[in-house]
Design a protein that fits this description.
The protein is mostly beta strands. 0% of the residues lie in helices and 56% in strands. The protein contains no helices and twelve strands. The strands form three sheets. The chain has a four-stranded parallel sheet with strand order 1-4-7-10, with no helix packed on it. The chain is globular and about 35 Å long.
Amino acid sequence: SGGTTLGSVFVAGEMRVVDGGNITQSHLYVGDGTNSTGSLVVSGAGSTWKSTGTAFTSAIGRIGGTGFVRVENGGTLEVASSFVVGSTSTTANSSTLTVTGSASRFTGMS
């Protein structure tokens, strides 16, 4: 499987994984590049985003971008390698990762 970038260099991108949907990719970048904005929502029991890459493979708000990830209502975000929020930005970065709800999960670096 390839990778996914949501929002890259002056562009916005958005994705929702809901109602038991499952996506497996090698990497995930949300808000990747100058003046970009990206958002990802994983919501609902059985809904999963899995990033399987083994190098630096997942980031929210990278290289001047801003990203927002929300895992809620029993959703799961799994990352096999490093995961960075607000990386290599030369300015203040307001990127966020929010996990809310008792059955929602974020797992990293297994």
